[in-house]
Amino acid sequence: MVSPFDVLQLDADADDAQIERAYRRRVKESHPDHGGSVREFQRVQSAYAALTGDAGIDVQEEGTDDEAGRNGTSRVEYLNYEVLDDHGWDFDDEDLFEKAAAADLDPADYGRFLVHPHESLLEAAENRGFVWPYACRGGACANCAVGVLAGELAMPVNTILPSEMLACGIRLSCNGVPITETMKVVYNIKHLPRLDELRLPPRPFEEAHND
Ligand code: FES
């Protein structure tokens, strides 16, 4: 895994002030509104969290096998769609998550977290410190779409995804709630060709994380 110092472009003996300055610079450079990508933006956040122990970015919460299913809790294994190209993987690969688990990916790109009963999938990701794409948060765009490869995500509102996409396992994370003990989802799939035309212009999640 790439060192958090490397991600922030710092020497290994950088002090707190240097880490802070580097983080502010890198988070702007990597911001999706300024030519960066969601993946790079999250990597910078994870690096800062690793170096400072920032409680607002809780990337470590994975939970144990025993916790999944307790009191309605679900455990979600996630993978960033942007990683697939880098590794020559395909969305339809049967062993996609096995390959991801063996690839030593950044926590922003691959990992697991628990979703509590009061959380949608998107809310759970955000509450664990991740930045997943969204726009309307109301079931009317495809910006928050995820591909569900295992488990079930129930959506109370969907006015955008046609039945053929639902049949392929595509769901909305902003209001989708896991209803199985475990799930495997590929997030950030808004750039899939068949989802492109259903997206709203970027707005978003960027603003909420642009302080
Ligand atoms: S953000 Fe628009 S449907 Fe989820």
TrEMBL record:
PROSITE patterns linked: 2FE2S_FER_1, 2FE2S_FER_2, DNAJ_2
Superkingdom as given in the UniProt entry: Archaea
Residue ranges constituting the 2Fe-2S ferredoxin-type domain according to the UniProt record: 101-185
GO molecular function, one term: metal ion binding
Stretches of the chain forming a coiled coil according to its record: none
One family name in Pfam for this protein: DnaJ
Needed cofactors: [2Fe-2S] cluster
Domain annotation J: ranges: 3-69
CDD domains to which the protein is assigned, alphabetical: DnaJ, fer2
Keyword annotations of the record: 2Fe-2S, Electron transport, Iron, Iron-sulfur, Metal-binding, Transport
Annotated signal peptide: none
Protein family per UniProt: Belongs to the 2Fe2S plant-type ferredoxin family.
Entry protein name: Ferredoxin
Top-level taxonomy: Archaea, Methanobacteriati, Methanobacteriota, Stenosarchaea group, Halobacteria
